[in-house]
Every structure is written in structure tokens, then in C-alpha cells.
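I'll show a record.
***
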Amino acid sequence: MLDIRFIRENPELVQDHAKKKGYTVNVAEVLELYAKAVEMGQKQDVLREEKNSLAAETKNGGRPSDEVIERGRAIRDEIQQNDEAFLAATKAYQDVLWQIPNILQDDVPIGGEEDSVEIKKWGEQTSGAIDHLDFATKRDWVDFERGAKVAGAKFYYLKGDLALLENAITQYALNLVLSKGFTYLTVPSLVNSRTATGTGFAPRTSDQSDEYYIEGEDLTLIGTAEIPITGYHADEIIDEAKLPLFYVGYSPSFRKEAGTYGKHARGLFRVHQFNKLEMYAFTTPEQSNEVHEKILAIEEEIWQAIGIPYHVINIASGDLGAPATKKYDLEYWSPVDSVYRELTSASNCTDFQARNLNIRVRRTESAKVEVLHTLNGTAVSLARSLVAIIEHYQNPDGTLRVPAVLQPYLNGREVL
């Protein structure tokens, strides 16, 4: 969430940026509820001070007067009543505060998905490939029918060489990211509501979000390793000298993909479960923009090495989501549909997630403690990675060439 002090100092900016992100919020209401909660808290402080004064008088010796006893009882009852009201007012204020998204960086394009701006392009645009699902099904590399039998629609099995290719992509990308100074983590596939909400994913029931919510448990299946990695340093203060901290997390990812109907959803491109390698960084506020560019550069290096043409777009405000202040998408060129399709993303969430989970930095010179910044970026999303490689490396005879950088992870095989 945003700092309430920032909202108080910049109410019009916060309201304007929320609107540009497509969020319906009332900043004036937030400030009104906050003022009410503060007023009630101050009233409680006055009552407790009076209660302590009466107690001090009693300790001076002698029996307190009936008037003092009666006033003490009245204060006790009033404090109890006001505590309940104060908690209710605080909850009302916080519930509305959580609805306000992060603000935008100055160079974010304004508008919807169609208003995102291309900032760079790499590789040749080809055409005429066979759809990945038709290609993989003919080779008996993927089985959606049995996946549906076991778990429902959009679940699947990878088989044989395609499963081995997924592993090769993972190993290659992991080694490259590790060479950039990242620490490898495997992460929990379930997180509690505080972690999910604090990261910007806020499930309440199974039908209220894109995440799978475990009824009767304070647990949610993760949609990305970003969520548990954010929670890794919750309630911690990190010395400035240790920042930036870089992690790369491997996990299955579970998504309902609610609201995606009408988008490209064939085969492996949009599924309910897939494996993913996610980069993550904790930084000082001064470092976050530079680290954002570093994460994007690593993503580009991966896909240039594999040999998949792409472009990078600066995502428009209405397609950013709540936590991100700026986001890049790397979209690969599809020779099947002659369009660019999302492959990876890289987001700067500034202090939005860290404030939610109380993750702070202690400055070296001043010893001042303040909220740090968090960033995330996809190294490889494996299902979509397979789509891109099948579309670009298929042979007319139905075999698949192996990108050179992946061959060492497939015992030197050049063709599958």
C-alpha cells in the first residue's frame, strides 16, 4: 500500500494515478476515515492518561473518594467502548487504503493495453509455422485429455522429449541468472493471506481472484514465486550495505486465468498450472530503476541466446495492476499468428509491497530505518517458452531443432 503521509500530501496525484490505472477509489474518503481513526486514537490516549492520574492519586495513601472510584469505573468503561470503535474505524480506513494502487512513473504510457509503447525490437519476423499444439500432439509430447481427466480443463501432461526440453530451458536460464549474482531459492507453493495480500494478490474466496484459495485454510496457491519471495524478508530490517539482494525462485504456478477469455488461450499458452523461474530483487529506493533495467537485460539475454525474436513494450497505465509503478513486457514474435505474444515481464513495485510486509532498510550513515523497494521479473515461464521454441525451431519433417545453448542440457542432442 501507499504511505498515508504521501497520500495526505498528494491527494490529487494519487486520485489521478489510480484513475489512470483503472481503479475506482475515493482518496477523500480514505483521508476522512484516517482522520477519524486518528481522532479516536487521540481520545483514547487522553482517557488513559486520566486513568493513570487517578491511579497515581490512589497510591498516595488513603481510601479514594467515592467520586474518584466512580470516575475510574466510568473511564474504564469508556476506554473499553472506545477501543471497539477505534478498532472498527481503523479497519474501515485500512480496508479502503488497500484499494489504492501504486502511483505511476513519469514515463509510463497512459491508456489501456493497446496504448503500451514498443521501446526495442530484436530478431527477424518470420511466418508460416505449424501451431505448437498440433505439432506437439502429433509427436505425443503433450496430453491435455488425460490432464482434464485428472484435474480438469487446461491441465496437462508433458511427455518425453518435450518434458526434457522444459528441463533444459530451466537449467540454462538458471545457470545464466546465477552468473549475474542471484541466489537460488525453491519456495513454498502455498502462502498465507498476509503474504498474498501484501504482495498485491488479495484472495478472499475462490471466486474473487485469479488465485486458487484453499477454503477453510489461511492458504492460497501461488501464481508466481514472486509472492513467497516477497514474504521471505517480511518484518525484517536489512542493512543498506547488503542491498541490492537478488534471488531467483523456481516454482509451479497456479492461475485460474479468470477474465482472459477472448485472448490467445490455445494449448500451452494459457493454462492453469505451469513451472516458472522468477527473478526478484530487494533494493534501496535509489537503486530500483537501475535494477529494473538489469532484470530486463537478463530477460533479453536469455531469449537472444535461445534465438527467439521479440520486442519489449513499456506497459500502459491501465494494464499495470496495483503493485507496479512501471512494467516491461517482453513479447515473442509468433510465426503462427504473425503477432507478438507475452513471454516475460519485469516490474518495479517500489515500496508498495515492502510497506505491506514491513520490509525495511537501515541506512549506513544515519542509521535511519525506511521502507525499501522490491522488483520482479520472469526469467522463463516454461509453458510459453515451449510454445515459442516449437514455433521457431520446427522442421518440415515433424522434428524439432534444439537451440544451441540448450543442447548441453540434452546430452548434446541437436534434434528431437
User: Anything to note?
Assistant: The chain has two domains: 4-97, 113-410. Residues 4-97 form a domain with the Helix Hairpins fold (CATH 1.10.287.40).
